[in-house]
Each structure stands twice: as structure tokens, then as C-alpha cells.
Amino acid sequence: MTRAFSIATLAVIAGVGCDRQPSTPAPTSSQAPTGEPAATPPIATPPIATPPIATPPIATPPIATPPGSTPPGAELPPVELSRGAQSGVSADGTYTVRWEVVGGAIPDAEPFSIAFAVTRADGKPVSPEAKVFVDAEMPHHGHGMNFVPTVKRKGGDTFVGEGLLFHMPGRWVLAIDIGEDGVRERVQWNVDVE
After folding, report:
1. Domain presence at residue 34
2. Which residue has the higher pLDDT, 147 or 37?
3. Over the stretch 37-57, which tens digit does the pLDDT of each residue have?
4. For residue 180, is it within any domain?
5. I need a surface site. Which of 117, 150, 154, 182 has the fewest CB within 10 A?
6. Can you give the pTM of this predicted structure?
7. CA-CA distance, 75 to 65, in Å (whole number)?
8. What is the C-alpha to C-alpha distance for residues 142 and 171, in angstroms, rounded to an integer?
9. How far apart (Å, rounded) are the C-alpha atoms in residues 31 and 39?
10. Contact 158, 177 (CB under 8 A)
């Protein structure tokens, strides 16, 4: 920092880099009148060269479908729910949702998934453009989950919600929202975790 300041100071004192031009050009040694000293040439500051930073090319591996998974856009098999699946109806009665925990029980402070099926009261299938969300909160504690679950549509009107995590025991409210044609409805359940 001191060296840069010194060079900058010398450049300003010598008149290098100044926008102001002298009113009369400084005479050169051949033009200097007798008895007057020749003008001092300005101090040249060497340019500071910064070596280019070499960045290696980034190799992107080809995108492959992991074994056992379905390629994007392919039809997935529907989720089979057991007879013990929980059931609920949306507030306006448009949807009935049945759900259950994948693997049987909600684990203690571990991520888990739920499988669920959505049916419409009018018998129509749920639109492929429908937005389906899963969320959970503890109303008595004033907080929800620490993670946002993802929802994957399986075959038909079945879905899997992944990445749920009930990080503490107590009463949770599990909610599934279905949005079609600009209208969003919610189905919810109380889930007690011990």
C-alpha cells in the first residue's frame, strides 16, 4: 500500500496522469534558452502486470438416470395405499385425500416420506398442471418443519411427499394443498408424535 501511494504521489508531483496541461509546453534540452536549466523529464511508472488466472475447464458429467429410477417425463407407477391410510376431505369438499407414511411409522427426528392419493368429488382426474404441496406445523409452538418437503406425482392421481421431518414430539398438523385453476384447497390432519 505504501509503495502504491509513493508511486501515485510521484506521478502527481511529476505531472503524470494529471488532466491539467501546462499553459506553455516545457522546453526540451535543445530548446532551452541559455542560462535556464532543461526541463526534468517526467518519471515513468512501470505498468503493474497481473498474471492471468488460469481456470481449469469444468467437466460436466453426462446426466444419467440412476438405476431403479424413472427417467424424466416417463409415467410412474401409481402408489398403492393400505387399508389403514388416513383419509380427509378438503374444506370446500372438492378433494378427498388418503395418505400414509412410507415404511409404516413416523421416525423419531428423522426424514420420512408420505404416499397419498387425491380424488375429486366430481370424479374428474386431478389436472396434470395441478400444484400439490405438503407441509406441517406445530400450532401450539408457533413453528413448522425446518425443511420444505418436495412432492412427486406418481401414476394416476397418486403422489409421494419426500423430506418431511418432525424434529420434536408433540401435536403436528399435516396439511396437503391442492391447487387447480387458480383455486387452492387444503386437507389437514392432527398427527401426535411421541
Report:
1. yes
2. 147
3. 666 666 766 666 666 666 566
4. yes
5. 182
6. 0.61
7. 14
8. 12
9. 10
10. no
